[in-house]
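Subject: Sanity check before I submit

Could someone independently write out the C-alpha cells for this chain? I want to compare against mine line by line before I put it in a report. The sequence has 214 residues.
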Amino acid sequence: MVMTNTTSIASVTSIASVTLEVADPEAARRFYTAFGVDTRIRLRASEAHSTGFRGFTLALTVSGPATVDGFVDAAVDAGATVLKPAAKSLWGYGGVVQAPDGTIWKIATSAKKDTGPATREIDEMVLLLGVEDVKGSKQFYVGRGLTVAKSFGGKYAEFASDESSPVKLALYKRRGLAKDLGVPAEGTGSHRVVLGCAAGPFTDPDGFAWEAAS
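---
Independent answer below. Compare away.
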C-alpha cells in the first residue's frame, strides 16, 4: 500500500547518498576512482544475488562529446564493458557502459559538437529507477516529501533536489529504460543499490531500499 500521509512519516527532500552493493569493495573502489566518480558514491560488501537487469542506471551529464569519450575510455580501461558505444543521436551524444560490479552507467551530453577541450567534470548525476508504474511511484515519492521537477505522463518523472545532494532522482518505465541502455528488461534478485536520506528506512513499490543517511 502506498503511504501518502506526510504527517505520519518523515519527509524526503533529496538523496543524501547512493550505496552500491558489491562483492569486492576494494576492486570496485579502484574502478570508480579510475572512472572518476568515487566521491559521489559509497560501496558496501554484499553477497546479495541478482541476475539480468537490476532496474536502474546512474547517468552522468557532461559538457561535450570529448568529455563523454574520456569517461567511457576511462571506464573501459579500468575493466568496464561497453553496452552502447558512444555515438550521436537526436538528443546529443552518449554511450553506456557496465562496471565490473554489474552497475550500468550512462554518460551523455546534449551538445553534438565540442566547444572546448575535454574535462573530467560532471555537470549532473542522475539515478534513474526503472519502475513498473511511473505515475504510482511518482505519487509514492510525492507522499514521502519529494517535489516533482519534470513529468511526462506515465513514461518519466524527475524530482527536484537540493545542492547538497550528490545525485538527482528520476523514474523511468522499466522496459523503456532497459531499451535505452541496450539490455533486456528481465531481471531477478536484489537491485544492489541502497539510497540514503534523512527519512529512512523504507522500501518503494518496486523494491528499491532507502536507509537513514549516516
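---
OP: Matches mine. For the report I'm noting this point. The helical segments are 25-35, 65-77, 134-144, 174-181.
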